[in-house]
Amino acid sequence: MNTKVKDINIEDYDYPLPDERIAKYPLPERDASKLLIFNGKDISDAHFRDICRFLPEKSLLVLNETKVVRARLSFRKESGAAIEIFCLDPVNDDYQVSFASTKEVRWHCLVGNSRRWHDGILSMPLNINGKEVILNAERIDKNDESSTVRLFWSPEGLSFAEVLEAAGEVPLPPYLHRDAETSDRERYQTVFAHYDGSVAAPTASLHLTEKLIGEIKAAGHDMTKITLHVGAGTFRPVSTDKIGDHQMHSETIILKKNAIEEILKAVKEKRTVIPVGTTSMRTLESLYWLGVMIKKDGFAPRVLHVSQWVPYQDDVLSGGEESLETVLKYLEENHLDHLQAMTSLMIAPSCPIMLTKGLITNFHQPKSTLLLLVSALIGERWKECYRYALDNDFRFLSYGDSCLFLPLDFLTI
User: 100-140 pLDDT, tens per residue?
Assistant: First the structure.
């Protein structure tokens, strides 16, 4: 195993980010944000609405169609103590099965003011389409990082998705230092969001509008959609000195068979595959490693999980085409129309980048795994790009401006 990656010091991925450079609100128009362009040599800037001018011919853009759920629930005990329950992911159930439940669900949750909730059931009155509903929460189990919470409601019949939509608040990133507002329900969501499951938006895609998507397609580029349900771990900075001591969060990825076929076609035609956002890139690169794992371990159906350090093993790797063809064979042999797996993949310097040939992304927090991902793609030049952005009044983080990285010299395709 390549152990050097574990010795990377996170202090080398720090940069000064004044609070006033963090965009607290989105711009009035989604595609009016600034766009930094790095082509492997030079840095320039434009506006996101002009991105067609900079995309390589016949690019394939990979979009994450996850939908942000109103995961933040605010309860009050009879004593008046406020208890916040932040829903992370369902226990055992598939996301869609959980959201379709009309009786009760069990979720892993973060609990705010946890010490004030020793036992008992919390209740919240709701009015959903004129119907009086009571949402209840009972803590079943607790560990160091999260709690298992049973959520149930009466009368039964409404889906959990409907209940959460009525009861919850948009889970804005903590670094915005503000409560969610009504406008965030639309703006902290992509225009093509479809599958409920994320507690954070795939923010690079927040810049896309229906009009701009049409222009990109009209210019001869293709788009395909995948799903990665973004977990709360995306907010967690690396708190250890060496990244080898950092535990990556695990997230669900779902890829339809036709999306994998479209990606394979682009790879065969040597077209530029560009994930829109780090979540799409993690999904794309995880897809490659899933093919490697299936080829090595056989085609029997099983729970698939890309672990944190898989790319740094000494195994002989197959190329992108062979890996994708292996995944498609796995789907055919198991009569599946989609691939579902978990990924804890850490993309850091020295990680081989196998399917990604560019990246559209926002500017990320200092000392974050997302900054490590950017460095894996463009090397130490990330420092120049971020310095350029700071010197030229770019806005940072979730509601901030964006980058287009086309680092052809750095890729190991």
Answer: 999 999 999 999 999 999 888 999 999 998 999 999 999 99
Predicted pLDDT of residue 132: 95
The helix/strand/coil state of 153 is strand
What are the backbone dihedrals phi and psi of residue 341, each rounded to the nearest 5 degrees, phi first? -155, 175
Q: Which residues contact 337 (CB under 8 A, 6 or more apart)?
A: 256, 257, 331
* Higher-pLDDT residue of 40, 330: 330
Of 324, 294, 290, give the one whose Cα is nearest residue 310: 290
Element (H, E) at 215: helix 210-218
Token pair in block for residue 16: 């000064």
What CA–CA distance (Å, rounded) separates 94 from 91? 8
Single out the residue of 352, 353, 358 nearest to residue 406, CA to CA. 358
Q: Are the C-beta atoms of residues 76 and 121 closer than 8 Å to each other?
A: no
Would you place residue 94 in the very low, low, confident or very high pLDDT band (cuts 50, 70, 90)? confident
Q: Which amino acid is at 194?
A: H
Q: Phi/psi of residue 293, each to 5°? A: -65, -45
Spatial distance between the Cα atoms of 148 and 8, rounded to a whole number of angstroms? 34
What is the dihedral sign for C-alpha 230, 200, 395, 55?
Answer: positive
Strand partners, 35: 46, 402
Q: Which residue from 342, 324, 326, 329 is spatially nearest to 283, judged by alpha carbons?
A: 342
User: pTM, whole model, 2 decimals?
Assistant: 0.94
Give kind and range of the element (H or E) at residue 289: helix 278-297
- Helix, strand, coil content of the chain in percent (nearest 5): 35, 25, 40
Report the C-alpha gap between 189 and 197 in whole angstroms.
Answer: 12
| pLDDT for 51 beyond 90 | yes
pLDDT reported for residue 152? 97
E strand or H helix at 105: strand 104-112
Q: What whole-number distance in Å separates Cα of residue 353 and Cα of residue 410? A: 9
CB 184, CB 168: distance < 8 Å: no
170 exposure class (CB count in 10 Å sphere: 0-12, 13-18, 19+): buried
- At 3 the pLDDT is 66
Beta-bridged to residue 46, according to DSSP, are 35
Chain centroid, CA 13 distance in Å: 20
